[in-house]
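2024-03-11 09:14:02 DEBUG pipeline.ingest accepted 1 chain
2024-03-11 09:14:02 DEBUG pipeline.ingest length=242
2024-03-11 09:14:03 DEBUG pipeline.predict start
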Amino acid sequence: MSEPEVLLRKLTRREFRQRMQSGELKACVIPVAAIEQHLEHLAMEHDWRSVGHVAVAVAARLRPRVLVAEGLLAGISEHHMRHPGTLSLQPGTFLTVLSDLIDSMVRAGFKNVLVLNGHGGNTASCRATWDQFLRRYQVNLHFLSYWDVLTEADAKDLLQTGHRLPDDLPGHAQEFETAIALAAFPENVRTDVWTDQPDSSPARATPAQGRQFIERIVERVTNCLEEIIDGKRIARVPPFFP
């Protein structure tokens, strides 16, 4: 028999219903990211591909308890709009759609929901409104950018061109993100032009480096989600006005 599916979109309604009603499903991951310029050498889908890669790997490690729901491939990217081709949502639009996705998963029966973020531009708006989401949905709801599980020690261990957080890790389309792409989806890296731009740090990235980053990220996000499922990591609902 094949292993239980980790992608919600691949299930039929009966398969989802049976897995939820049996108590097998304990949590879902909603990935959010961006489609935006990533310098001259990386495909614009990088944020979406990277967060999706992490989400699926985490769900596979926690199989059959976790499903990856459909998320938001476009994010809040107004600061990249001088580069044509970038897609950007207004913060209100992004948060409204994200809220609807969370609502859908809560109504489906999930009590543990992790919004896994792959784009820095989404962070401030989510953090600013998260208390409202917690009050509304009353579940164990968390927001995490996948690189937040990495530390300065990881940067010093694996990066050659800088160790500052967040400037070099995660940075933007520099050594870290380029290494991730080389390891997970190398067809998205244009190595013939990665030094033909003001920032040449991407050329220092290697697939081996990317594999080590991915392994650390997946292991730590998996541990985080396991703690969420086990009730060891609780998102407390803020009090209502008395």
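2024-03-11 09:14:41 DEBUG pipeline.report Helices lie at 13-21, 46-61, 91-108, 123-137, 152-158, 175-184, 207-229.
2024-03-11 09:14:41 DEBUG pipeline.predict end
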